[in-house]
Amino acid sequence: MTDDRPDASPLKSPVALVVPCFNEAARLDVQTFACFELPKRSIQIYFVDDGSTDGTAATLDGLARARPGRVRVLRLASNRGKGEAVRQGLLAALDAGAGYVGYWDADLATPLDELEGFCRLLDERPELELVLGARVQMLGRAIDRRPLRHYYGRVFATVVSRMLRLPVYDTQCGAKLLRASPRLHAALREPFVTRWLFDVELLLRYGAVLSAEGLALSDRVYEQPLRAWRDVPGSKVSLRDAALVTRDLRRIARRYHAELASR
Length: 263
Fold this sequence. Notes:
Elements: E1 15-21, H1 30-35, E2 43-50, H2 56-66, E3 71-76, H3 82-95, E4 100-104, H4 115-124, E5 130-134, E6 142-144, H5 147-164, E7 175-179, H6 182-187, H7 198-212, E8 221-225, E9 228-230, H8 239-243, H9 245-255, H10 257-261
């Protein structure tokens, strides 16, 4: 006899979500993370404590105790930057056998309910390797972004899209989902050369891996306009960090010269 109950269908690809944390004790929405579910899909959340010096470790330990098996906590002995925290979390998730792995900002500037749409894209389009969240201000969407940050972001995005020779709208949105694959392992093999622009490096590394197989990055990446996004007070990106972007772009250009030259 066929079981027609709604919950009888098989689970879809399991998801692991990496959340890098540095001194997030005061603004981490523990309840939202603890209660989050995905329809017909298992999910694990990997919090990576990037050498926090406040109460973040205790907060994350409490969350892990409240959701055993759902929440895992990884710790870096010292602050190594968001890029390394994300890389370590993604590698741990891949080793655990997740089908889709992603990363999300701890402040939930992007609501967690956006993740379901990202998963659906990877389900329906098996050729896709990455889904990138894009903060596009359009009618019918609630994108609450400070004007100065928006204009700075557009200038940065224009520079990066020309560097990559791809029409990327928003490389720096902190919401991304990736298909687990040997290509992803290859892209994560080495630490990133920058602390904040690792998203750009990840695209370049994917591009190099795909190019070696005769494939185009532009056919494997999809930017998903978010339905909602908000600026959350307490960002760890300072004016000094913003001033170092030009330097880091030069470092990326030197490190990935061969890949950029082939585009």
